[in-house]
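User: Could you check the structure of this?
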Amino acid sequence: MLQGRCPVVLTSPTPGSTADIQQRLVKWCLGTERGLARVEYFADSYRQAVIAHLKTQLSDQNIPFYQIKLPDHTEAAQVLYFLREQLEHYTSGVVSIVGFHTAFTPEDQQEGLSGLNFNRELWANFPLRQIWWFTPGFSHLSQEEMPDLNSWFILRLRLLESLPQAFIPAEEIQLTSLSTSKATDTKRRTDYLLMRFNQAKQKNADPLSTLKLFGLPALQGLLNSGDYTEGRRFNQQLESQLNAVLTAKETSLLIIWAEIYKQFSEFEKAKGLYQHLIQIFDEFIQIDSDDVDAHYNKGNVLRSLGDLQTDLEQISEALASYQAAINSFDRALQLAPDHLVILRNQGKTCERLGSLLEKNGDQAIAQYQLAIAAYNHLLELVPSDQTIRQRRDGLAILIH
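Assistant: Sure, the predicted structure tokens are below.
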């Protein structure tokens, strides 16, 4: 007598698990030719696991796969140009985009969000399947500040793995948009991030992830709302993690922290972080002398250090920092001659150096001419950039 077989029970992956997100993204990528997907993630290691699986699956189907990392702590217009330039390189396939939460400077974040939202049709019209990766803080911010763009995301997922299960809310917290003042919106976002920060600490979540996803965004929210007293208190609490950030060489966090110290007028601490960052990027360059990002980011940090030294009237130090920044941008442009963001930053740094050298007429003119050359190159690539055109024309008038 034949023995009956036990039925095989097929189970679906746990919602929000790595396997679940992998499965959903593969299905979406195979089923469409273009569109936008949004994935909220809590830890980059699990995001990378999803990417590795997706890349393999798409390769089996001969579908090209690309990755874009947005520049850190950059002016809004430059980030938008960078994203558009990168997307224009590809004519088909799947593109993964990460780095939104650290892309914009604090003072430019609102402009950046507005720009992403306003250009929603531009992003959606590229013949690509795009996966936009958002941290929880940026995901919440995007729902508040980019409602039109959010409506264009065909697929919306949450990768929940990496935090203790008790930390994940049983139900997703929904903070609905209200017709309130901008100050009230900022307070609500900050309260949300503080709540998530405290939950993560209680559940012994990874300290660096907690700091990156909730701690520093919450601190920025306190400062944006003008609550410097609570901001100072909270920053003192976060500073216990600073050595861990330095050890881990988390450059994007260090750049943000340096800007926060400047807002607190703790200028020596800001300078110290800038100097640490320069050392870190020098280490990256020693490992790979052709690392465009390392040269570019080193230039950005040197420019920020020069700005701070100028504010403190440390002119000789500022001159040296600006010149070193220009040298870093020059090296980056040797490796990537048509990089829009680097060209823009090189021109602006030459302008700043020229303004410090105005008492030395010939030297100032030489820097302004270098800035004009950078802007001319940029305008060859993006003729519609009226802001750069105005800067170039203004310098041309100044030196004649």
